[in-house]
Write a structure and sequence with these properties.
Radius of gyration: 45 Å
Number of helices: 6
CATH architecture of one domain: 3-Layer(aba) Sandwich
Protein name: N-acetylmuramoyl-L-alanine amidase
Shape: globular
CATH class of one domain: Alpha Beta
Keywords: Membrane, Transmembrane, Transmembrane helix
Structural class: alpha/beta
CATH topology of one domain: Lysozyme-like
Number of strands: 8
GO molecular function: N-acetylmuramoyl-L-alanine amidase activity
Pfam family, one: Amidase_2
Distance between the termini: 120 Å
Organism: Humisphaera borealis
Length: 250
């Protein structure tokens, strides 16, 4: 409601006109003009804080999921190879798997290798690391390849030694004075004087040897399987010599 104007008749000013004085009345509470406040921005502050908290929670959740996923992937990976090994093949069946045998740090010289020597480890269980320790040659695997029997390494798993990866001569095998520098040494895990090798182990051994024969042009008569009763240098009394030799390339 606007200010009231009250005229007093009978009282005149110097101009001869009626004098007017504006007077104002106090507005009722419900008519008072509301004051502008800064309450709106303050009301937005909690919302912004809540949004930030949500972002932090989402980010923390993503980090947690990624951490758990990484841990699961690491747990699913095979056991890391020992320092003296370059790779481990669960099968030597496809052409790609065979090619992996020759994917070495030092390129394979096909004219260097002339012989292949096969022997057993002399222990019921084992793998490349255990064979290396048992050899006493500064814990370095003396063989180029080890074929597992499921006890310490996978059944038929072909473990590729660092000597093959670096194209170095084989080391000394217990019961043997030396292995020629142009001879590839293969150890079959097991005490084959007491028990035979597994079918899968023999199958993988045959594939490994024939793959080496084919690539390096090693004839059957240059694949050595020797007798050395009670010593790892031999192939063991239960090794199927005739069947093995029959499966070799000419």
């Amino acid at each position: 409601m606007s200010a009231a104007v009250i005229a007093k008749p009978g009282v005149r000013g110097k101009t001869g006109r009626a004098s007017v004085r504006p007077t104002s009345r106090k507005a009722s509470p419900d008519q008072a003009t509301p004051r502008r406040t800064k309450s709106a921005p303050r009301a937005q502050a909690p919302a912004a804080a809540t949004s930030r908290r949500r972002k932090v929670i989402v980010f923390a959740g993503l980090v947690g999921v990624m951490t758990i996923t990484g841990a699961l992937l690491m747990a699913m990976q095979p056991t890391p190879l020992s320092p003296d090994m370059s790779k481990s093949l669960m099968s030597v069946e496809t052409s790609a798997q065979v090619e992996a045998l020759f994917d070495t740090q030092v390129p394979v010289n096909v004219n260097r290798w002339k012989y292949i020597y096969v022997h057993h480890s002399g222990a019921a269980t084992g793998n490349a690391s255990i064979v290396a320790d048992a050899s006493g040659s500064s814990a370095t695997l003396p063989d180029h390849f080890v074929v597992g029997n499921g006890l310490g390494a996978g059944d038929g798993e072909v473990q590729v030694g660092q000597r093959w990866n670096a194209q170095q001569p084989a080391g000394k095998t217990v019961g043997l004075d030396r292995v020629d520098s142009d001879c590839i040494s293969i150890c079959v895990v097991g005490d084959l004087d007491r028990a035979p090798a597994t079918p899968r182990q023999l199958e993988q051994l045959q594939r490994l040897v024939t793959a080496l024969q084919d690539r390096l042009k090693v004839s059957r008569d240059r694949v050595w399987v020797v007798d050395a009763a009670g010593l790892p240098a031999g192939c063991g009394r239960y090794f199927p010599r005739e069947a093995f030799r029959t499966g070799l390339l000419p």
